[in-house]
């Protein structure tokens, strides 16, 4: 009878340990995935910003060229 109680207690203890481990593993996986998604979103946002900056720089160069050409035509 005592052996049965010890065996049941051991099974319950093992289940609790496994539950805690599984919960922590799941939580870690969820945080890791959230970080990966956030990182991917930040990379996409930075790519969009770089693209917009590049377009603005091209527009500035184009405008500078037009201004210098118009001054050359005036002279």
Structural summary, described in words:
The chain has one helix at 2-74. It is mainly α and 75 residues long. The model has no long low-confidence stretch (mean pLDDT 94).
Mean pLDDT: 94
Portion of residues in beta strands equals under 5%
Measured as a percent range, the helix fraction is: over 70%
Unreliable stretches covering 5 or more consecutive residues:
none
Distance between the termini: 111 Å
The 3D shape can be described as rod-shaped
Keywords summarizing the entry:
single chain, 75 residues, mainly alpha, 1 helix, 97% helix
Summary, kept brief:
By secondary structure, the chain is mainly alpha-helical. The protein has one helix spanning 2-74.
Topology:
Blueprint: H1 2-74
